[in-house]
Automatic annotation (TrEMBL):
Domain Polysaccharide biosynthesis protein CapD-like intervals: 10-283
UDP-glucose 4-epimerase CapD C-terminal domain segment(s): 286-326
Family designation: Belongs to the polysaccharide synthase family.
Tree of life domain: Bacteria
Gene Ontology biological process terms in this record: lipopolysaccharide biosynthetic process
Classification lineage: Bacteria, Pseudomonadati, Pseudomonadota, Betaproteobacteria, Burkholderiales
Protein name: UDP-glucose 4-epimerase
Amino acid sequence: MLFNLNKSTVLITGGTGSFGEAVTNILLSQGVNEVRIFSRDEKKQDELRKKYSNSKISFYIGDVRDKESINDAMNNVDYVFHAAALKQVPSCEFFPLEAMKTNVIGTSNVLDVAIANKVKKVICLSTDKAVYPINAMGQSKALMEKVALAKSRTSKGTQICITRYGNVLASRGSVFPVFLEKVRGGLPLTVTDDEMTRFIMTLEEAVNLVLYAFESGINGDTLVQKSKSVSMKIFIDAFKIALNIPDYSVEKIGIRHGEKKYEALLGEEELLRAVDLEKFYRVPIDSRGLNYEQYMEEGIAGLAEINESYNSNNAERMDLQDLVDLFKQELTIT
Ligand SMILES: O=c1ccn([C@@H]2O[C@H](COP(=O)(O)OP(=O)(O)O[C@H]3O[C@H](CO)[C@@H](O)[C@H](O)[C@H]3O)[C@@H](O)[C@H]2O)c(=O)[nH]1
């Protein structure tokens, strides 16, 4: 393996989130020397410090918007998993500039500092909402991807890869934990739109994608895990079955600010260039320079062949029973 976690020092930005915790566990099991958790929230850091009580984990308070704070944490780091982001769709819609500062400028800062510190590889976490983005969260993540790709063109010593995934079931503030809270509080479930579809994945799958990118991604790659999708109608049916609450009431609340009816993991233009790796898609960087005259004759082959994106509307759907099983499994973890 080209990149080896054994005895390495790894920095996780936004490391106190559910992803950070899951990846920390894997890193520790792979024999890393040190995991550095970088985040803004001292309360969450304190909780994690007590929970782990492990001398291999160190905590850095800082903000990706502030280069100096990243610099303090980046010294002698081998690898970076960049998960820090503003990621809630409605709140980014009300504060788009904040999304820009954290997701775009913050990523640029993390990459600049990583390159200056000769970090070997950085994996930047993105989302399906960055594809044909209509909300500020997705738009800022789309620009984040562009920043990462642009820097990968010149960052010879530091490899930069992007991973993109759909909705992670256990993610804080997302619909599954929100529904559990509603049931605990005796409140009706709230559904935006029965026909809305999303790619659903477990935290384990999200972590596996990032580790795959770490092991196999080439500089400038965007890696996407193939996932099945579900409609909200099936989601709610499965939720009621899993919790054994068949007659629980459901209220319609309508589509929220900035929401799309369905999400795309790969745009049409990307799907044309994507390499099918069975479980994953790999979209290599377009390595042509700005001097297009050099490339005119070749052009890009096959541009007219595919006219659909890889989206949650045309993707394979998850069976009701599979979803029920997944929810039951999730309930044992939550
Ligand atoms: O009370 C609710 C809340 C949500 N939904 C629906 O459930 C689906 C999932 O919603 P949610 O869990 O809030 O996720 P998204 O808004 O799709 O965005 C999430 O998924 C992204 C990846 O696509 C992450 O990057 C974001 O951080 C995360 O908020 C959507 O169709 C919502 O319309 C409801 O029907 N009722």
